[in-house]
Amino acid sequence: MVKARPRPAVNGVASADRVLTVLTAFQIGDSALTLVELVERTGLIKSTIMRLMVSLENHGFVNRMADGRYQLASEVMRLNTVYQEALDLESHVLPRLQYLADQSGETASFYVRHGAYRMCQYRINSSHRLRLNLQPGDMRPMDEAAGAQALRAPFKVGIALKKPYFSKGATDPHAASVALPIYGAQQELMGALVISGPASRLTEDYAESLEPMFFEVAHDLMRSLGYKPDGSA
């Protein structure tokens, strides 16, 4: 009887920096990576990567798919949850939403991507009686509204915006909104800042007048979340 070949094992000599090199080879937009792609991105040899992957798989950081590709697994999500809780996103976002609402006179919100939808995570309502009725936790479609556009913008596009996204009548025929994507320390999308209100008040001209203040608040929020432009210390 032919014995099955044992899977390569990590004997404890693999250094932490090699493990981290493999994990950080995964980038935003990757669903899975082949062994060849990992070799190209890390500069490590195949046998080393295979040994590291066994250890990462044993600890729940990666899964080896049926076609031989590797994808990140649930332990990464768990650590991300721990990170988000430690970050206390609310304390960073809410003061800036209050400032946006005060300065614009309209409702300021922070949206996050939730599968095929966008979810209102935080919100400061306009002081006007005529305003949009939406609460934290409410879900909206990923349509052509400004917030949805900001949430699906690729990083290189979102970070280089010269004008915020603007929409009118996309989700609600009577509503308008302006939005900017917000990125964190690893250039990951944290969510979208959104100013919204009745289209009769939040006109395109008025939205344009808010741009300098809106960009300033968005950049300040990203700095507080640890984002650093490429090449900065």
UniProtKB/TrEMBL annotation:
Pfam families: HTH_IclR (PF09339). Residues 13-74 form the HTH iclR-type domain. It comes from the Bacteria. The keyword Transmembrane helix does not apply. Keywords: DNA-binding, Transcription, Transcription regulation. GO terms for biological process: negative regulation of DNA-templated transcription. Residues 24-227 form the IclR-ED domain. GO terms for molecular function: DNA binding; DNA-binding transcription factor activity. The keyword Transcription applies. SUPFAM superfamilies: GAF domain-like (SSF55781), Winged helix' DNA-binding domain (SSF46785). This is HTH-type transcriptional regulator KipR. It comes from Pseudomonas fluorescens. The lineage of its organism: Bacteria, Pseudomonadati, Pseudomonadota, Gammaproteobacteria, Pseudomonadales. The gene is kipR.
